[in-house]
Amino acid sequence: MTTTEQSPAAATGPDAPRRRGRRPLAAAAGLLSAGVALGVGELVAGLMGPQSSPVVAVGDTVITLVPEPVKAFAIATFGESDKIALVVGTLVVIALYAAVLGVLALRRRTAGVAGIALFGLVGAAAAATGPAGGPLDALPALAGALAGVVALLALLARLTVPTAGAAQTRSDDDGAPLAERLRASLGAGDRKGAGLDRRRFFLTSAAAAGAAVATGGAGRLLLRRFDVGGARADLALPAPASPAAALPAGADLAERIDGLTPLFTPNREFYRVDTAITVPQIRPADYELSLTGMFDSPRSYTLDDLLGRSDVIERDITLTCVSNTVGGRLAGTARWLGIPLGAFLRENGIRSGSDQLVCRSVDGMTIGAPTRSALGVEDAMLAFGMNGEPLPVEHGFPVRMVIPGLYGYVSACKWLTGIEASTYDAFDAYWTERDWAAQAPIRIASRIDTPAPLRRFPAGRRAIAGVAWAQTRGIGAVEVRVDDGPWLPAQLSPQVDADLWRQWVLPHDFAPGSYQLTVRATSAEGEVQTEERAEPFPAGSSGLHSIRVNAT
Ligand SMILES: Nc1nc2c(c(=O)[nH]1)N[C@H]1C(S)=C(S)[C@@H](COP(=O)(O)O)O[C@H]1N2
Ligand SMILES: [Mo]
């Protein structure tokens, strides 16, 4: 590139105020160019596959790199909208960067070109080095950057139309050759007498905005080709050889109590926690689960291998996230269909030296589960069905792990494609590397669902109700305290399985007034839920759920 500096005369002469007026337009040019770059990047990614999308790859990289406290804050603050928050935050950063680039490029085209090139290289590197990425996946980001450069130069050319006096020295003024050619080909080069061609700038802007939206939209549409929703709908699940324990009639207290969490969480409402910005799409026909590491006879399994086994089980298990705060909603219950994990591992000759299973998902996540639990916890499974359907894509289609009694981040690997029998000494999994506890049994917990905190309700008799869980141990009792009164025993939903949460209800006569309600659970083994408060990091929250309610 030749020099792109304006002549000193232009900076300080009569033209200077006009250039200042151009700055907001240059910032807009930067923004539009970024839009074109992102749009074209998505279009090329649409042709190549989701793993090559620069936007997603950069977002994934940001998630991997942000320090743990920030991530914990994001999950605590935005909950399941954490990824939307990330995408919005990233777009804001990109927008600021692009606006500044636009202004810089007004004086120095090379700065603009270099800035966009850098932007493209970051996207290219992120996509090419992603878990499903290869060198070719750099293409969309590079194509996007190139389109962004063309857009930026074309837009800026509208802001630096040579004046009559400067016409002869045009090439010294802002002589980027590409800009020259673009300007000539776009028909602005012959316009004289004004430093700024607003009309043409806005026309070019409209074209750039249109191109950004059209390419980005087309890219998104093309990416839908990779969605596995159709293949999922076509998948036939086997009948279980061992069905779930029968539930007695009326087992679900929520049928009678307003505001109480239902015994089974519908798939659509099931909490979702993972680091995937776009949900991994695995075609059933392409699915492969490979066993590696400390097995005597490691091998790979197709989905049909797993679905066709004769030992399919169906179990009701409550899943819980370690990030759940006291009274929080990051827990859900489903009827899972799958194969027993312990039998499967033994069949493949898992060696006694392994104390950690490194579970790998197609998106590069590693989840380290204790081998002892995988082998020894009853009903640990490789699940492919959830509440009577194939696993929803967001919940790990086609296969995930479920181990009752362990928080999801050390047991419930979704989009599971590999199990390596390993040791804790040999490998730190994703969350362990980020200082979460390597081993994390679910803590006994209870929650008040109704009445809702701070809500006013008419005085009189009314149900206090909620859920409590202590997977693998079972819930033995739940008690409620009103203000500083005695602990009052609540009535429990039938005990069906220790891995299933239990609903509880306590009818109570409320005189008008304000009350502090507190709940505590005791496991079937007699462990009383501690009132000692702990934050979710690093091994799960503890403390009693306590809310203020008002009867009027
Ligand atoms: N591949 C993958 N599996 C994952 C995670 C993830 O980020 N990636 N998150 C884990 C965590 S922290 C939890 S709590 C559970 C949540 O499962 P769900 O989203 O189906 O509720 O999945 C686990 N499995
Ligand atoms: Mo989690």
Ordered list of secondary-structure elements with their pairings:
Elements: H1 8-12, H2 16-48, H3 54-65, H4 68-78, H5 82-107, H6 109-128, H7 139-159, H8 170-173, H9 177-185, H10 198-223, H11 229-234, E1 288-293, E2 300-302, H12 303-307, E3 313-320, E4 331-340, H13 341-347, E5 356-361, E6 366-370, H14 371-376, E7 381-386, E8 389-390, E9 400-402, E10 416-422, H15 430-433, E11 445-450, E12 456-457, E13 460-469, E14 475-482, E15 487-489, E16 491-492, E17 502-510, E18 513-523, E19 545-551
Parallel strand pairs: 1-10, 12-19
Antiparallel strand pairs: 1-2, 3-4, 4-7, 5-6, 5-10, 7-8, 7-9, 11-13, 13-17, 14-15, 14-18, 16-17, 18-19
Helix pairs in contact: 2-5, 2-7, 2-10, 3-6, 4-5, 5-6, 6-7, 7-9, 7-10
Bound molecules: ligand MTE and molybdenum atom.
